[in-house]
Design brief:
Blueprint lengths: L2 E5 L3 H10 L3 E6 L11 E5 L4 E4 L16 E5 L5 H9 L4 E5 L4 H4 L2 H13 L3 E5 L4 H8 L5 E4 L15 H10 L23 E14 L12 E12 L15 H11 L7 H12 L5 E10 L7 E8 L3
Parallel strand pairs: 1-2, 1-8, 2-3, 5-6, 6-7, 7-8
Antiparallel strand pairs: 3-4, 4-5, 9-10, 10-11, 11-12
Helix pairs in contact: 1-6, 7-8
């Protein structure tokens, strides 16, 4: 489960953030006597370059023993040597941070790769840096342990402005559900079950990329143009669209295409289509997907595959 963390400057801001739905707050502590909020708190230890749980206040569990903290890595991707050294030092994981937008600084493909490499070593991974509401669903596909949000939760997105409780509540709604590590599970009220109705569709059509694909020897080592089209059926909402909580962004489709297509040589377009469909169906509001993958450089015609898949199918 991904935790939603908010940067705060005072105990009052911390209480506002938790009341609006954050799992925990983060404070920067350049000196030992800096304040610690009376809510679940993580501390940026400036001197040690670590994100650590507060030890003299309510604790926050991020899975496993986080007493040694997350190493903060800024503006760059960790190497294999870096990650091995973090494991050897007994750290819990890493927090990737950027002064600007992290998704632009490192790119989604790199973030996906970093998250995968961290998980393979048993390390936690967090993302921070200019995160905006459309970024949340994109980053959740990588299953990070932490998303730390800052400026987007302040009035008018200004760093010097107060926290906006409505913005925090909006972001909270973009996460699948509150973390059980922070909030005890509540027994849901009994409601009459209604069948889902898949009425709306989001789509991307005719997205062309040059990629490494093909089973013949002559197709290895040369890139080919491949065209992707996707339609995804989504559960219709029962009110007019108001904000990002009501939207399944087409970024999910284009991001998935780029990530799958850029993962290395694939012999079959069928593999591309199946992988894309499976990833998209991981979104809780998507009930069915239609994926078309076409090779454009094999002669006068176009060859490819159409597949239809349903969630749970």
């Amino acid at each position: 489960m991904t935790l939603f963390l908010v940067s705060v400057r005072s105990d009052e801001e911390a209480r506002i953030a938790v009341a609006a739905g954050t799992d925990a707050v983060v404070v920067s502590r350049p000196r030992p006597d800096a304040f610690i909020p009376t809510v679940p708190t993580m501390i940026v230890d400036v001197a040690a370059n670590l994100l650590t749980p507060a030890v003299d206040g309510p604790t926050i569990a991020i899975g496993g023993d986080v007493s040694h903290g997350l190493v903060i890595i800024r503006e760059t991707a960790p190497t294999e040597v870096d990650l091995d050294a973090i494991v050897a030092a007994g750290r819990a994981g890493i927090l990737l941070a950027a002064a600007g937008r992290l998704v632009d600084t490192l790119g989604l493909a790199a973030l996906d790769d970093i998250a995968s490499r961290c998980r393979s070593r048993g390390l936690l991974v967090g993302f921070s840096g200019g995160l905006e509401s459309p970024d949340i669903s994109r980053l959740l596909t990588f299953k990070p342990d932490i998303l730390l949000v800052g400026r987007a939760l302040r009035v008018a997105h200004r760093c010097d402005a107060p926290l906006d409780p409505d913005a925090i509540a909006l972001f909270r709604g973009l996460f699948p559900q509150p973390s059980a590590a922070i909030r005890p599970a509540k027994t849901p009220a009994k409601t009459e079950e209604r069948p889902r109705r898949w009425r709306d569709r989001i789509f991307v059509r005719d997205m062309v990329l040059e990629i490494d694909v093909g089973a013949y020897a002559e197709e290895f080592g040369r890139r080919q143009r491949v065209r992707f089209s996707i339609e995804a059926e989504i559960e219709a909402i029962d009110h007019p669209t108001r904000d990002m909580r009501d939207v399944v962004s087409y970024d999910l489709l284009t991001d998935t295409i780029r990530q799958v297509a850029g993962a290395g040589h694939v012999e079959f377009v069928e593999t591309l289509a199946e992988t894309i469909a499976a990833r998209i169906l991981g979104h809780p509001r998507i009930g069915a997907v239609h994926v078309t993958v076409e090779k454009l450089d094999l002669g006068a015609g176009v060859v490819g595959i159409d597949i239809w898949r349903e969630a749970g199918g």
